[in-house]
Design a protein that fits this description.
The chain is an alpha/beta fold. It is built from seven helices and five strands. About 55% of the residues lie in helices and about 10% in strands. A five-stranded parallel sheet has the order 2-1-3-4-5, sandwiched between helices. The radius of gyration is 17 Å and the shape is globular.
Length: about 200
């Protein structure tokens, strides 16, 4: 019984990824997202990333790969996870309300030409919607990562990658796949092809 359940979970995860491979429109959007992120870095910009819960962990994971390294040693790339500073988060939450915890940081740290990566499995997180509004007002590019519906945030983004599932774990697995693809593409575009024998840092 346990083996059957676990195999079923793995099959569900594989099925979502197969749907991505079989969807030329989704793949074209992924290419646009990667090209946009690379252009932002080539122009001297940075990446700001935010999400709640598991998506907050994804934000930190992606930022860590860019600032440290992904496939190989190279100069650090500027990326900020807006989910990490407890003093900032609690000050904003206390003074302005939780829905402003990311928007206020974008107001302080985002500049025109930067890229805001907004992560929400539902696409309806109030804190993410406020952050997208602020990012657009300040001239940042906005890329969304959501589930199948896209939620309220999809039409607010320049580009939105909707993972074809309504199951939160499957969506989150797809989001970190996108994060890894983004890191690899940026690293390769900025510094050349990686050593094929290199081992990812984490």
């Amino acid at each position: 019984m346990k083996e059957s359940f676990l195999q079923e979970q793995i099959q569900e995860s594989l099925a979502v990824k197969q749907r991505l491979l079989d969807d030329p429109l989704w793949l074209a959007t992924l290419q646009q997202v990667c090209d946009l992120a690379l252009r932002v870095y080539q122009a001297g910009g940075k990446l700001l990333i935010a999400g709640n819960g598991g998506s907050a962990a994804d934000a930190q994971h992606i930022a860590g790969e860019l600032v440290s390294r992904f496939y190989f040693d190279r100069p650090a790339l500027p990326a900020l996870a807006l989910t990490t500073d407890s003093s900032i988060l609690t000050a904003i939450g206390n003074d302005y309300g939780y829905e402003m915890v990311f928007a206020r940081q974008i107001e302080g740290n985002g500049v025109a030409g930067d890229l805001f990566l907004a992560i929400s499995t539902s696409g309806n997180s109030a804190s993410i919607l406020k952050a997208i509004t602020t990012a657009r007002q300040r001239g940042l590019h906005v890329v969304g990562l959501t589930g199948a519906s896209g939620g309220a945030m999809a039409p607010l983004c320049d580009l939105c990658l909707k993972l074809p599932s309504s199951i939160t774990p499957r969506i989150q697995e797809g989001h970190i796949l996108v994060g890894h693809l983004l890191c690899a593409y940026i690293e390769r575009g900025m510094f050349g092809s990686q050593d094929p024998n290199a081992t990812p840092s984490q």
